Write the structure tokens for this entry.
Amino acid sequence: MVVQVRRDGNTYEMEFSRGKTVKKMEVVGTSDSTGTTVTFWPDDEIFETCIYDFDTLHNRLQETAFLNKNLKIVLTDERESTPHVEEFCYEGGIIDFVKFLNEGKDVPEAFKEPIYIEGKSDPDAPVAKMGEVEVSLQWNSGYGENVMSFANDIYTPEGGMHETGFKAALTRVLNAYGIKNGIIKEGDKVSGEDCREGLTCVISVKLTNAQFEGQTKAKLGNSEIRTLVDSLVSDKLMQFLEENPVVARTILDKAMTANRAREAARKARDSVRRKTGLESGQMPDKLQDCNERDPSLCEIYIVEGDSAAGSAIQGRDSRFQAILAMWGKMLNVEKARVDKIYGNDKLYPVSYTHLTL
């Protein structure tokens, strides 16, 4: 590896190989600019492969350019007769990153411009706990969730404290805004999963003393960054929602639709799995059974409502007469939402082998 540093009007050079200094630093020329050039050749006795994949380098360098606005990176592949050159520079930083991730997806008009949040820790905070936060988010009409988090430009696929702080703040702010403005009823809050349906988000934090869990640096463990991200997102996202009520309403409508769909799906699964009283070997709750065990000698009276059941029970012969009360007032399923239908404990699923419309 050869390192050249241009500063103070001179060009300094130093060379290393296999962890040792091959050539000590010396002045090799003059320069009227500043900068550092690092040139290296992979060692086939150390690395399993010395052939670099262009797409891998392309994706990583483009990602780095997104995370550092206005940073210019040029990738040149000279292995072919005609060099392949790619240049990356993004003025919008992670805002452009979010737009790039949502390319080809249906983004509603209300979300055309991503939300952007940035901030720093208190200047009086200890140096070891200093941090900077950038968050950009945009919803699309899909159902998937794509939250990408980075710490010091390192991708953290398993998330960590910065991602935890963001998710907690997002859910809390959307529920608080919805309840405050009458969009969400007090007992009908949306979950974090509902809030993030269709969300594309990039979280980038810079820390003085980043602490990762494991050698792969897949998860960030700094607890102080969770508090910083939570605080910044809570304050600035709430401010954004207050200033953009149309966007806020669109976000909450999407979250509430996701909530109703998820609850309807859960109740539908529960309804299918639930066995009826006769299948499980237990009698229905409303059945007042008789004493006779021989079915050919028994009678059953089906009545409407608890009042009719009370009168029938008093007048029956309990030796052979059973009373089954049916619920009298049925839900109007033509007008009710799907989640209300499946949530009704008086409705039970009926399986059809054939259905003709």
